[in-house]
Amino acid sequence: MSEHQPTRYTIVGNHLTQHRELSLTAIGLGAHIQSLPDGARVDIRTLAGKFPEGRDRIAAALRELEQHGYLERVRERTSEGRIVTRTFSYNAPETTRARRRAGKTRPREAVTPPAPPPQPAPGLAPPPRTNPGSLAPAPPAGAVPPAPPVPPSPPPAPVPVRTPAPPHPPATQADPAPLGTRARAATSLLAELRRHDDRLLLPERDVRRLAPAVTTWLERGATPEAVRRTLSTNLPSELCHPVALLAHRLTALLPPPLPVAQPTPPRPAVVPLQNCDGCDRAFRSPGPGLCRGCREPEDAVTPTAA
Question: In the β-sheet with 83-89, what is the strand arrangement from edge to edge?
Fold first, then answer.
């Protein structure tokens, strides 16, 4: 017979575990944060030390939770003058925020707890307390002074994940195909990528964003089949961000423009062959007549004896 264990379970709403716009990393991290007690550390360095995900993925998941209202990070100044980040976790973002604005409830707080006061060494009496402004008495002989508390290091700045921008079409490019035809061909090519791989099912907004880059490929002489083969072959086994992969390939593998064809110089005219009227030999001449051998005896001058 099982025993109810209220301290070993956490109730998490389906609005978080079945959220359609959050990634699996953000959903799992949100459920983990809601299971922690108040005052627990939820900075990027602490979470990266617990889980195999790196700091970049954890920082991105925290930004997702903050964007959808499950977290709120507020910077505050302590009495010592240090700037700390206080994180509030919400089980039901909309309801909890409304009640907090009305002053009826207080959100669960997950911040770094203050450092405990230094404890005296075993076997020694604690130092006497002094009033503010008075000088503290020297510690007794043989006492080990407590180590000063180490202030927590501020969390590292989140690294933004940037998607490479697709190349812009050239300003002037000679192409006999009209612009509207190339744009429609690029949109159709991107929309039909899902027929080659189901993971390449792109939203309409991403199709419109990547269409100018595909149009640039078509303007530079690439055929639609070549563009389709470049985008849909040799895909990784785990494809998490297909739009980013397509944008990277369209940018990194962009072919150069085709060189302008040079005009072919005209070939010299060929002089036709003629048959000599005197000896019937073939020779090249613009018109019929005698060859050089038949013309020279007639033109030569015969010397006479004096």
Answer: 71-77, 83-89, 108-110
